[in-house]
TrEMBL record:
<comment type="similarity">
    <text>Belongs to the PP2C family.</text>
</comment>
<dbReference type="InterPro" id="IPR036457">
    <property type="entry name" value="PPM-type-like_dom_sf"/>
</dbReference>
<dbReference type="GO" id="GO:0004722">
    <property type="term" value="F:protein serine/threonine phosphatase activity"/>
</dbReference>
<keyword id="KW-0904">Protein phosphatase</keyword>
<keyword id="KW-0464">Manganese</keyword>
<dbReference type="GO" id="GO:0046872">
    <property type="term" value="F:metal ion binding"/>
</dbReference>
<keyword id="KW-0378">Hydrolase</keyword>
<keyword id="KW-0479">Metal-binding</keyword>
<dbReference type="InterPro" id="IPR001932">
    <property type="entry name" value="PPM-type_phosphatase-like_dom"/>
</dbReference>
<protein>
    <recommendedName>
        <fullName>protein-serine/threonine phosphatase</fullName>
        <ecNumber>3.1.3.16</ecNumber>
    </recommendedName>
</protein>
<keyword id="KW-0460">Magnesium</keyword>
<dbReference type="InterPro" id="IPR015655">
    <property type="entry name" value="PP2C"/>
</dbReference>
<feature type="domain" description="PPM-type phosphatase">
    <location>
        <begin position="1"/>
        <end position="275"/>
    </location>
</feature>
<dbReference type="InterPro" id="IPR000222">
    <property type="entry name" value="PP2C_BS"/>
</dbReference>
<dbReference type="Pfam" id="PF00481">
    <property type="entry name" value="PP2C"/>
</dbReference>
Length: 290
């Protein structure tokens, strides 16, 4: 099992969120899909939310509630970019102290900061964030696959090549074009995240973060349908042997079981966040190693 998940709610310091009552607190949620070993994913789990909170404080960002106001989106993107770069740099320093094999270890990172009025998502790799709004599945990230036209152009402009070797891979090796770590593939593989800032509405239902072990075999729409049924209490009657409740953890577990039943051979990590109940801290995660 090379994946890792992280949940920190709230994750900002009291000083950063000064003046924002309990209802203004942000939650941090993330999935890290490791490859070549679990070390980088574990480092991300331990460090990413800590470093992001430091960058938010350094940039004097207000609560995530203000992410789309007065240039807040641009500053959140700056904070995310600085955070990913710092964590990637820490991993690179560790690589230099280890043997050459450690330089082949890496991890994707899909990170979400959920506030009462905004959601900020940073993505590096092919894990994915999808949320349900009014019954419609809305992707909040775009997978960094080597054959994605703009990613292919970026890799080749840096001097690298994308080779179709059992799927499109950077230098015929890595099936994602962005990641934390993978020091031996830089600069072709970058740790720079793509950042999405989305306003919250009263139609928002839940957020799903998952590694590609889920998305390889389950569509955005199907994942949201399954999670919605579970959170509404409908899944227990359809899957009585495996699911007995209607919590976010149950929804995450059901999505993992669905991916396994559809033949996913990859590690599967899923985090489900109930957006309507964030204030009561209802969220859940599930992992499966294959």
């Amino acid at each position: 099992m090379e994946d890792a998940v992280a949940v920190a709610a709230p994750f900002l310091s009291t000083a950063t969120a000064a003046g924002a009552g309990d209802e203004e607190e942000e939650g941090f949620f993330a999935v890290y899909d490791g490859h070549g070993g679990a070390r980088v994913a574990e480092a991300c789990r331990e460090r990413m939310h800590v470093v992001l909170a430091e960058e938010v404080e350094r940039l004097k960002l207000a609560a995530a509630a203000d992410a789309t106001e007065d240039g807040g989106a641009a500053r959140w993107k700056e904070a995310m970019a600085a955070c990913f770069a710092r964590v990637d740099g820490e991993v690179a320093e560790d690589d230099e102290e280890e043997d050459a094999a450690e330089q082949t270890v890496g991890s994707t990172a899909i990170v979400a900061v959920v506030g009462p009025r905004s959601i900020v998502v940073g993505n590096c790799g092919d894990s994915r964030a999808v949320f349900s709004r009014g019954g419609v599945a809305v992707p909040l990230s775009s997978d960094h696959k080597p054959d994605r036209p703009d990613e292919l152009e970026r890799v080749e402009a840096a001097g690298g090549r994308v080779i179709n070797w059992n799927g499109y891979r950077v230098l015929g090796v890595l099936a994602t074009s962005r990641s934390i770590g993978d020091y031996y593939l830089k600069p072709y593989v970058t740790a720079e995240p793509e950042v999405t800032v989305m306003d919250r509405t009263d139609k928002d239902e839940f957020l799903i973060l998952a590694s590609d072990g889920l998305w390889d075999v389950v569509s955005n729409e199907m994942a949201c349908k399954i999670a919605r049924n579970c959170l509404s209490g409908l899944a227990a009657s359809k899957y009585p042997e495996s699911i007995s409740g209607s919590s976010a953890a149950d929804a995450a577990a059901l999505l993992v079981e669905l991916a396994i039943s559809r033949g996913s051979n990859d590690n599967i990590s899923v985090v489900v966040v109930e957006l309507r109940r964030l204030k009561s801290r209802k969220k859940g995660s599930r992992q499966n190693g294959r």
